[in-house]
Fold this sequence. Notes:
The complex is a heterodimer of chains A (about 850) and B (about 110). Helix content of chain A is about 55%, strand content about 15%. With about 850 residues, chain A is of the alpha+beta class. In chain A, β1 (about 130-135) and β2 form a beta hairpin. Chain A is globular and about 130 Å long. Residues about 460-475 of chain A have low confidence and may be disordered. The longest helix of chain B has 27 residues, at about 85-110. Chain B has one domain (about 10-110): Winged helix-like DNA-binding domain superfamily/Winged helix DNA-binding domain (Arc Repressor Mutant, subunit A), CATH 1.10.10. Chains A and B meet through α1, α2 and α4 of A and α4 and β3 of B.
Amino acid sequence: MKLLRKLRALLRRGKIEAEMSEEMRLHLERRTEENVAAGMPADEARYAALRKFGGVEQAKELARDQRPWRWSDEVVQDVRYGLRQLGRNPGFTTITVLTLALGIGANTAMFSVVNAVLLRPLPYRDPDRLMMLDEKWQPRFSHFEATVRDVLAWQEQSRSFAALAMYGNATFNLTGDDRPERLTGARVGTNLPALLGVEPALGRGFAPEEAAPGKDNVVLLSDRLWRRRFGGDSRVLGTAIRLNGASYTVIGVMPASFDFPSGAELWKPMGISDRDLTTGHFVWAVARLQPGVTPAQAQAELDAILQGVQPKYVWSANVVPLPEYFVGDVRLALMLLLGAAGLVLLIACSNVTNLLLMRAAVRRNEILLRASLGASRDRIVRQLLTETLLLALLGGCGGLVLAFGAMQFVKSLHLAGIPRLEQASLDYPVLLLTLIVSTLTGLLFGLVPAFRLSREDFAGGLKTRNGIGATAARPWMRHALVVSELALALVLLTGAGLLLKSFSRLNAVPRGFNPESVLTAKVGLPAAGYNEPARQTQFVERLLEGLRTAPEVRAVAVSTGLPFANADDAGIAFDGRDAGSPLVGTTANYYRVSPAYLAALQIPLSRGRLFTEADIAGRPPVVLINETMARRFFPDVDPIGRKLDIGGPTYMREIVGVVGDVKQAGLKTPPAPQVYEPFAQKPGRSFNIVVRGTGDPARLAETIRRSVLALDANLPVSDVRTMSDRVEDALTRDWFSVFLLGLFAALALVLTAVGIYGVIAYSVTQRTREIGIRLALGATPRGILQLVVGQSLRVVAIGLAMGLVAALALSRVFGSLLYNVAPRDPITFAAVPLLLLGVALMATFLPARRAVRVDPLETLRAE
Amino acid sequence: MAKNDFQTDLLQGTLDMLILRVLNRGEMHGWGIADRIEQLSKKVLSVGEGSLYPALYRLQDQGWIESEWGVSDHNRKAKFYRLTKAGKKQLEVEQETWDRLTLAIGEIMKSA
């Protein structure tokens, strides 16, 4: 209540002030009239009234003094005075605000990314209790899709979950008008939306009975698809659309925020067929933990269930919290970057503290004057703090602008591989954090100079001005700043150096193929009309024939798998090896390709031959294997002519050639065994078109689309991307970390250099008189130079040593982010201190040289 | 000049209490309060009218009295003050304190 009244009084103060004057005026008027009525002459009546009242202005002032807004008046005064002060020193203000803006901006931008990627809860009900379930087969696969059978067993037998829903990726060819489109969607348990706590924005969700095959021809649309293809018209509900050649009824539209699984644009019930039960590993499950059950307990229960279901118990369960499953190892990199941004801010703060200390020395006389005129110590400290807070808040505003720009830039890069990055924004928590950070930094760098000034002996101060003793006081403070800046910069720079080295190593890793000028696109033939293998082969033959004639096409092929995208995994069994031998078989990346595929991607042939147009159905079945497989399974013999079975037992294929290793799953993982089979000998409905061409990829894409539509007007082409893009995507995360840490380190280097220069330059100016005396007494300029540089080098050495210790201690954290670089890489740990030493030397040498050029007589006379 | 001595020496807080006491009878404007105090004290106490207003604003800020512009019996614009509930309670408290204080001082003066 009291606060409310005060606030009201504060807001109404203008009005109150006016009313007070009015009331007093009326009072005096009334008294004067009384006096006149009592017989006094007019002017005497007025004087008498005034006498009785006392001083009008004093009364007003007294009243004001008792008002609760006294403090706020002073704040306004302080702010006004502070702004005037800042305006009077535009150079100082600009540098300070800019320095702070860089530090705060780096933190704001980083925090907004961390907030979007790590902190903001997933848009589901109670997301912390949601778990992702999949399977693992150690040591080969730590995460792998589960089988429908396993998930069904979990669903029936487990007690750990309140609800459990299965889902699998699915693609749909949407046809029926002149724009056939291939859509990414999902087959889901009918309870999935309810389990996540999301209701359709329009229409209804799935009914339980729609889970059964035959009743499952119903779909939910994503908001995006609904707007793009159906004009956001609610009349689409209840209508039929054609997907993969079958008719589906649209029953609802999901809200725009619903993106599960990521990128899905439509959802249909699982509709589990007999075939699904035997197809293998292609589904995941989401489940909501029962209260009081831990993920580890649930995992143990699922494992026990699997042991009962699988004839040979090889697959076991994973239970991972949903946010962790999708964010994964980005967390470490982001936290490190946030820490790095924090270090940049600390360096910025220490620079600003230093600037303030220097300015405090300059303003000493002004402040002593104010103190001797009666300003209280409190008031002076408050005034100085107001100024630094103003600086910090201005810096915060600048930081927001920088952060906004930085985020627009980062978003414009469309970095894949960092989930939810595109949602980063300057929202309320980010703004709040910026405000808090700005205020804290203001207090941090403001308190030191403010208290130092206020501790001065005000009485004696004015007398000793410009004395040698007064101004040379406490250089250790500035030295401490130099030491901390150097140490912080060294930590940042070594981190950046390690990451940069790791990134360049990663970039130099051979991909095993040439991604330049290669465009890929995906085609899925519908079952209706293309179920016969002969039809599939025929379609591909005609397609390749058509594309080969296009002038901008150099080479064209199809493949079921693509490096840096998807490839099937298949079980390989070698002919004539004992069942118990470890060399009997393996899992391999499995590609079914047309003959020109290896030439199109420029995958080199090591031995034997590539596929030819003669390797077709009915001819002897052949395969190519990669060098890794050859080395591992045929260490001493020539693999050519040996036989293997793929996904068998089916039939044996003869190895006719060995080709180079290709990076399949990113650059960091070593290549797996790989096997190629002619598409013509084992065709399929789903494949990628691979075109090496010349000129604009967009025109090439159009060529591909036209060739496909010429063969079947209902057939969409999807996922059109250059191979280079795919490879770059795999580097995104590493590039992101390197880029940002490099940027922060560069900032730190510049700030530190400026900081050291500032400190040394200032202390040399302070010592001009001393240097003058030394020169006058016969010291050589060279000797003085050595003295000044030597003294600051001692400080620099302490900073570097401390930084080195901290960097070595912190390097352990880096380990998992580095590729082929030791966390304590000696080259980095030698180069960075040397670089900083060089920078520090330059920053010291320049002001020192200026000092010795001073004419000694001049400086002595100046006193 | 005895009057003037009282005017300046009026105990801190006593003026507040007097104002509350006067307003307890009903709402009143500024100079009315001044007149009333003078009149009730049989002209012994004269309020420095200048210090009356700061006191009024202070009491208002504390929520013990509230004010409203109105028209006086002489058909003039004036600001009327009136006790709030909190003010009534405050008056009781001050009355009690005052009674105890005067009693105590009286005892001392008698015995000494």
